Here is the input.
Amino acid sequence: MQTTQIRLASRPVGEPTDDDFAFVTDDLPELAEGQVLLRTIYLSLDPYMRGRMSDAKSYAAPVPLGGVMVGQTVCEVIESRSDRRAVGDLVLAYTGWQTHAVADAQHTRRLDPDAAPVSTALGVLGMPGFTAYAGLLEIGRPQPGETVVVAAATGPVGSAVGQIAKIKGARAVGIAGGPEKVRALTEEFGFDVALDHRSPTFRDDLAAATPDGIDVYFENVGGPVADAVNRRLNLYARVPVCGLVANYNATSAPEGPDRLPGYMSRILTQSLTVRGFIQSEFEPTLFKPFLADMGEWVRDGRVRYREDIVEGLENTPEAFRGLLVGRNFGKLLIQVAPL
Amino acid sequence: MQTTQIRLASRPVGEPTDDDFAFVTDDLPELAEGQVLLRTIYLSLDPYMRGRMSDAKSYAAPVPLGGVMVGQTVCEVIESRSDRRAVGDLVLAYTGWQTHAVADAQHTRRLDPDAAPVSTALGVLGMPGFTAYAGLLEIGRPQPGETVVVAAATGPVGSAVGQIAKIKGARAVGIAGGPEKVRALTEEFGFDVALDHRSPTFRDDLAAATPDGIDVYFENVGGPVADAVNRRLNLYARVPVCGLVANYNATSAPEGPDRLPGYMSRILTQSLTVRGFIQSEFEPTLFKPFLADMGEWVRDGRVRYREDIVEGLENTPEAFRGLLVGRNFGKLLIQVAPL
Here is the structure.
């Protein structure tokens, strides 16, 4: 059996180019005992992958040059040497940017297509949804009546943050780019207020939308949006930091002025809590409650989600570039093969 | 009865000058029921006072122009219209930069001169000691074997941070300016390692002193010291932010490059907790345990302290300028009048 893979050919400088990736078709090894052969259906694209392309110090090792780009997938088992998985099973796996793969059955999770569409295991009921749930509830700790702000708010993390904030009785203010996304925030996802960060009056709009200041800023973008939000953080506000997509393609520190002293001063005078996190930290304790809560919320319509599905593995690099600048609208998935 | 006061004449731009203060001698009002007349013995000078001279948004209102500069004091009661306080009592009060004052007896705390020298109520057994205790234990949470770093380490907060860290089984690395202070860190305060931030090899010295990285950075200075420390913070490191004295005289954001994106990225990739605080947040729950613990540690010699006493209210502005650049050596007090 063969697989077509996208390998990391060089470490991108700034925005990843087509030359940073190599498409290679190669033979897969024979299955060993306990392994399964998988056919990729959906590949998840997520901003953290930009970090894996870099060899800067981080919580995770970079993808080696020449290695297959990593990523979560939903796959079908097409051959099995494990009692755990049968041919035809749909599973969650971490097989990366490729059409087929051999994996240890124990590193896959079986999905029940009757419980929810299997693609949701990569989105609202998967890593992005769990990132929103754990970061908002463990670090953000929104209280009834407080104001929660999140950017990239039509994305899989941001939309879940806003909807969970509402469930917890907080006011949800969402920020997105462009009128279509902004409209979806209130009409589809139930945010109290939606703001367009591309508007020339964005700072004033934000002030008007947060008359009592901001108690929780779920940070997943950084950049100028964060700058505007930071000025409105209340005493004891919490800032879960789960992503900084605005910075991911940066090749050096931006020109001055140096905003760090001002930010530290704000942390001090407002008694802020700024806390970086990766969802895996909370998996041992919170993943089961997450699946129970979020499963229920999705079933009863209190949490909605949107998917942006791009057909064909060959379109992965371009779709990934779009993700970093917000061209997708909802959870970005590559449909590598039909379900 | 008259008092000589130091009033805020203008809001300093950069380092406070003599012109920013006005010395005025004025009549005190008659005592009302429940009030006491106080003679100031010790006036505490602390970095937070620079913030009170400014009208930037903060957790506390600024001193109004023409108002007496605020500050904690140790005073003697020289007249009383309260059952709570007798003439001759020594009390902790918040009467500011002046020789005499009228205060509500209920806003004073009686000090026992037999339990500890009364000046310690402004230092190791007072606000600075409590700042160290609450920030380190509630936010820093040092574990046995972890590495705790603190700057301005011969100051009243820093020296307490290092010594409490040792009591909790952590390794204490102190940073100070100049050979005399550096020597005191290991010889007097028991730090494991002492570093001079003025040394041209400071960054290398810090790396050598923290081979396992840094788990807690108690932030009370900011500036280049913080920059060097931040690069060595471990996964899940905690940064209680209690002061940024290096920035207090700044009049604008420094020139670039802009270090904020890099700092946020470090918070994210290292899952850092950065938490600003003012000790008053923790007073309701922790002040009693603090007095019990710290009183015991001071009595049995496990926590030592050093005072830098400047004679004469007239020397207050110059002493305060020195405090902001580290010219004091130990807790800075003005001896306004003899005990």
